[in-house]
Amino acid sequence: MIETLLINFLFLLIPVLAYLIFFENRNFYYSKFILIILASISMLLCMTFPIYLNSGFIFDLRLVPFILAILYGGYKHAFFIYIVLNVYRFYIGGDGIYQSLLFSTLVFVLVSLGSRKFGKLLPRHRIYFAATVSFAIIILYLTTLSFQTSLNKEFWNLAVHALMAQVTMMVVLVSLLEKIIANMKAREAFLQSERYHLISELSASVAHEIRNPLTVTSGFLQLLNKSESISPKEKTYVEFSLQELIRAEQIVSDFLAFSKPQSDNMVYSDLKEETEYVKNILSPYARMHNVDIQLTFHNSLSKKFDRSQMQQCLINLYKNGIEAMKAKGGVLSIEVLEDKGNILIKIKDTGNGMTPEEISNLGKPYYSTKIEGTGLGMLMVHSIIHKLKAQIKVESEKGKGTTFTITIPV
Ligand code: ADP
Ligand code: MG
């Protein structure tokens, strides 16, 4: 019996290993599909090689990958594995097909209800949660079984084995998965901080040097543009060059903002002045795109920060919101709130929104979906937020709009 149990452990571990080795670098969005496929394979293997107890009872660990797939993948993705389970169960045949269908449906619904809560828990609590869920479900299973068989010694034997095997395996797997997720996050955070470092280093040395020649060139081109001896065609060339120079200067000044050390403009403020200032300077831009900016302020907390950087950060976020609503206009609502000793800034637009994949690209240098975009705006936002030890959260739905929430600890 121990041998078959160990083989089943192996079936459950293989997907975790395969994921770790082959798929860990994939985008998290696709990884849900991979997760479901791997869990299905593991479930099929568990069902094909069940554990035979001496008492004559049979049980398998199919519920472990099934529950994990629902908890981590959410019910939409996990519906696939629910179908796989039942199709395979019909294929195997034998008694209890309908009981199995009913029971798996019940588990699917119950666990789906808990999966949202699971997603919001801390890693350690996820382990307890998953263990409790699988414990409760085995109890449920044994209860339904107890109506069909007598409560003899063999039954209790099965009960103890099934409970121990499932709950132990659940704890082991969730711990492993959480560790993998934590490692992925740590690596991403490391890469991101490495990016800031590189950018600020580069920008400090290069941007200054480039700005002077740019200014000189654009000065001479402006002079040339005023000359009467050049033809209209040549004049358009000069104008194009000037436009491109302005763009280059814009990029250079975006870069320069990174290299400014924090401390040249420190203030202790509740953010009222900053949020209003940014609203005022961007309102002509907003009007041009039929966007209305609404600001609500309910905050009594104050924090020390660099005013010009904070303004720059807000400008970038407001501007992105306005640009997202370019096509059909709308309302950009900004809310400043306090919550448990944190200042929250919510910047909400009703623009074109982003897919999960686009969200995961935010803050990477040069990632932009706009023709005129530089993709440096969000990078700068992240770097400023990083310096403040604050956090930024994005919620977005394609076609509906986006909400950025900045949480600043006081
Ligand atoms: P840029 O604005 O120059 O394109 P950013 O770094 O500011 O660069 O933004 C990067 C990309 O993120 C944008 O091109 C856009 O696709 C996306 N984005 C940022 N903010 C929003 C938003 N509020 N709504 C929709 N997409 C956004
Ligand atoms: Mg931008």
CATH architecture of the largest domain: Orthogonal Bundle
One letter per element, helices H and strands E, the order comes to HHEEHHHHHEHEEHEEHHEE
Strand content: 5-15%
What is the terminal-to-terminal distance?
58 Å
Percentage of residues assigned to helices? 55-70%
The total number of structural domains is 3
Name the average pLDDT: 87
SS-based class:
alpha+beta
The CATH topology of the largest domain is given as: Arp2/3 complex 21 kDa subunit ARPC3
Question: Order of strands across the widest beta sheet?
Answer: 4-6-7-9-8
Helical segment count: 11
Segments where pLDDT lies below 50 for 5+ residues? none
Q: Mind summarizing the main beta sheet?
A: 5 strands, mixed
Task: Characterize the overall form.
Answer: elongated
Bound compounds: adenosine-5'-diphosphate, magnesium ion
Question: Can you describe this structure?
Answer:
- This protein has 410 residues and is an alpha+beta fold.
- The chain has three domains: 2-190, Orthogonal Bundle (Arp2/3 complex 21 kDa subunit ARPC3); 196-259; 266-409, Histidine kinase-like ATPase, C-terminal domain (Heat Shock Protein 90), CATH 3.30.565.10.
- Helices cover 67% and strands 13% of the residues.
- The protein has eleven helices and nine strands.
- It has a five-stranded mixed β-sheet with strand order 4-6-7-9-8, with helices on one face.
- Strand 8 (391-397) and strand 9 (401-409) form a beta hairpin.
- The radius of gyration is 29 Å and the shape is elongated.
- It starts with a helix and ends with a strand.
- The chain binds adenosine-5'-diphosphate and magnesium ion.
- Residues 316, 320-321, 324, 349, 351-354, 362, 367-370, 373-378, 402 line the site of adenosine-5'-diphosphate.
